[in-house]
Specification:
The structure holds 2 protein chains of 2 kinds. Helix content of chain A is about 75%, strand content about 0%. Chain A is mainly α. Chain A has a single domain, classed as Sodium/glucose cotransporter, CATH 1.20.1730. The relative contact order of chain A is 0.19. Chain B has 2 domains: about 60 residues, no CATH class; about 100 residues. Chain B is about 70% helix and about 5% strand. In chain B, a hairpin with a 2-residue loop joins strand 3 and strand 4. The chains are: A mainly alpha, B mainly alpha. The interface between A and B is large, with 93 and 79 residues.
Chain lengths: ~500, ~190
């Protein structure tokens, strides 16, 4: 079977992409309005929402970047994963119910709509939409680039496509993504997320089992090698140290609920009471899939430090190298399909919220109403955003890394105080929201643009988020409380 | 006793954020030793090594320990804010108290285990990983997974009480009636 490894992997990836296209065609018939396109008419069941929430959270980073980070720096980055139980808890305790209630009462289609409903401020809506657009372009570009690189590495292993270029690989993979996003909008996005989530869970579980059998002594033998070489890498804070790890825990644990592509999906469930089972299912799915992140990284680091394997040219090769060397061809096929699933499930969420920002939120903030024929423009914006992101990914050089790094921290720092605290504290003010978003953007941009190196590896996104939370509460406390619209006031009581 | 009722969760959140900011400023202004966030592996490109963990903490002492204590208390307080004020009762406070105490216990076990490793250079390996690392994998994740389970178990009592759900449906009916009246007027 080994001689058919590449065709098998390619077959699984092709099958997965075929399913995505089929879902896109199926979902097109269910997408008749902008409401269907952006929030699926608020009619999704708990299984679909839970898998959509978890698969949107664990992007290609979890399957490629994560194992690469563990290979390079030991367990420091695992704090981004072990905080998931807290992250999803904050999402469901603090925003899932209220965001869904406001969406129904105000017929909201996006997070900026929710921010406007809460604060009654067009400036807050515009800043939220602008933040989303900036973050989306960066994160989408990195996802498209990752997708192209993975497809190129698979195709180059075959005789027929040995010389395929990166541009062609990005075009092929992006075309599939654009097709189902344009035809089926969020309906296609969440139903492909359902498939993608299942593939990711299966891939995560199978890889852990495979990784446990690479060394005869299992993970204990790998740990012994690491303890003998450095030791810090396999201890809880990895090589980067305690403050770097803990700042990531803060940023990712409390910041998860501020990710708009995740929060938006909390508006889409049919019944409020479904949240009861959505939360545990989401946490379960995430933790199984995230085991790939830990196990592959640890094993690849132990192989190299134990002189069993050759050093990798690039840390991001940890997962592909593991799969091509140690995984059964069928498992490798499933995991590569899972990798595309992880990337696409996040990218489609970005495309959706980005399109909403362009054709719905920004026009509403600037001229008081959204565009006419929103569905047509939503589909057009989806294509245009994809093309811009792909262009950034392929031709911008440093910009793609800059925007990609900017993404998660930007969303968390700008939106956590405004959404997470603002939906649970009546005194939170519009001026505080504008100040918090502006400050977080300024800090994040300054750190990225001037490449400021922060002592002890402390995350820049953490500093931005901490500052914006403090300024948000301080400004709100300093202001005289203003009465809220009656419907919002009543929702904040519930 | 009355002071307890005057202090709202948001005040506690604000105070904890200021504590976290204070610790962070202390760390940022400390003289970071060389390799405070790891150093490049001497022979293998792309790998970093942790080096002397005790040396890394020499300038900041137990700052990371207190930092995370404040973060756990902050997380617990934020989650508490997610329960409607009129549904917060003694049982909820007890459950949250136990949950946060467990999270703090896990953190103490993790950090003290790590400090013991730094002192002795020895650690036990259980389930394939060092003991402090197991506290991180299962304890840090598990201590807030308990809150996820609590959400599912106590959903109807604290998070969407049937009375609150009925009140929301009433609100939706009122808004729809108002919207249709507005449409007719136009």
């Amino acid at each position: 079977m080994e001689e058919f490894r590449q065709p098998i992997i390619l077959g699984f990836v092709a099958l997965y992409m075929g399913i995505c296209i089929w879902v896109g065609i199926w979902a097109m018939r269910r997408t008749k309005s902008a409401g269907d396109f952006f929030v699926a008419g608020r009619g999704l069941g708990p299984m679909v929402v839970s898998l959509a929430v978890f698969s949107s959270t664990l992007s290609g980073f979890g399957f490629v970047g994560g194992p690469g980070l563990v290979y390079a720096t030991g367990l420091s980055s695992i704090w981004m994963a072990v905080c998931s139980a807290l992250g999803f808890a904050t999402g469901y305790y603090l925003i899932a119910k209220r965001i869904r209630m406001i969406a129904e009462v105000r017929n909201s289609m996006s997070l900026p709509d929710i921010v406007f409903a809460r604060y009654g401020s067009e400036a807050a809506r515009l800043l939220t939409a602008g933040t989303i657009l900036l973050g989306v372009l960066g994160l989408l570009a990195t996802q498209l680039l990752a997708m192209g690189l993975v497809l190129q590495s698979i195709l180059q292993g075959t005789d027929m496509f040995a010389d395929i270029s990166l541009v062609a690989s990005v075009v092929i993979s992006s075309t599939v993504l654009i097709f189902y996003c344009v035809t089926g909008g969020i309906v296609a996005s969440v139903y492909t997320d359902l498939v993608q989530g299942i593939v990711m869970i299966i891939a995560g579980a199978l890889v852990v089992i495979t990784a446990a059998h690479v060394f005869e002594g299992g993970f204990a033998e790998a740990t012994g090698i690491l303890l003998a070489n450095d030791g810090e890498d396999i201890m809880p804070f990895g090589t980067l140290g305690a403050m770097a790890s803990l700042s990531w825990y803060f940023l990712f644990g409390l910041g998860l609920a501020g990710q708009p592509h995740v929060a938006t999906k909390m508006m889409m469930n049919r019944n409020l009471s479904d949240n009861k089972i959505i939360l545990p299912m989401t946490v379960f799915g995430y933790v199984i899939a995230a085991m790939l992140w830990i196990s592959v990284g640890v094993i690849m680091r132990a192989l190299v430090l134990g002189d069993v394997g050759l050093p990798l040219g690039n840390a991001d090769q940890a997962a592909p190298e593991f799969l091509s060397t140690y995984a059964h061809p069928i498992l490798a096929g499933i995991v590569f399909a899972g990798l595309f699933a992880a990337i696409m499930s996040t990218a489609d969420g970005f495309l959706n919220i980005g399109a909403a920002a362009v054709i719905h939120d920004i026009p509403k903030a600037l001229r008081g109403r959204s565009l006419d024929n929103e569905l047509f423009w939503a589909r057009s914006a989806t294509i245009i955003l994809s093309v811009i992101a792909a262009t950034i990914a392929l031709y911008s050089g440093q910009l793609v890394a800059l925007l990609g790094a900017f993404g998660w921290g930007t969303f968390a720092a700008a939106l956590v105080p405004v959404v997470l605290i603002g939906l649970n504290w009546k005194q939170a003010s519009a001026r505080a929201a504008v100040a918090a978003i502006s400050l977080s953007l300024a800090i994040n941009f300054a750190i990225q643009l001037w490449a400021i190196k922060i002592p002890y590896g402390i995350s820049g996104g953490f500093l931005a988020m901490l500052s914006s939370m403090i300024i948000f509460i301080a400004v709100s406390l300093a202001e005289k409380p203003k009465p809220l619209p009656k419907d919002i006031d009543r929702i904040l009581e519930l | 006793m009355k002071l307890i009722y005057l202090v709202k969760p948001i005040h506690l959140v604000f105070a904890l954020l200021l504590v976290i900011a204070g610790i962070t400023i202390f760390v940022l202004t400390s003289d970071a030793p060389i390799g405070a966030s790891g150093t490049a592996h001497p022979t293998i490109a792309g790998l970093s090594v942790g080096g002397d963990g005790a040396e890394k903490l020499s300038a900041i002492g137990k700052a990371p320990y207190y930092f995370q204590v404040a973060v756990i208390l902050l997380a617990g307080t934020l989650l508490y804010m997610g329960v409607p004020a009129h549904r917060r009762d003694w049982l909820l406070r007890l459950c949250f108290g136990v949950g946060i105490a467990f999270a703090l216990f896990v953190w103490v076990m993790l950090f003290s285990g790590y400090e013991a490793y730094l002192t002795t250079g020895q650690t036990r390996v259980v389930f394939g990983f060092p003991v402090p690392t197991n506290w991180m994998f299962w304890g840090i994740w598990g201590s807030f997974a308990i809150f996820d389970v609590f959400y599912a178990v106590a959903f109807r009592r604290y998070f969407l009480h049937p009375d609150d759900e009925a009140a929301f449906k009433e609100l939706v009916r009122e808004v729809e009636a108002q919207n249709s009246a507005d449409r007719e007027a136009n």
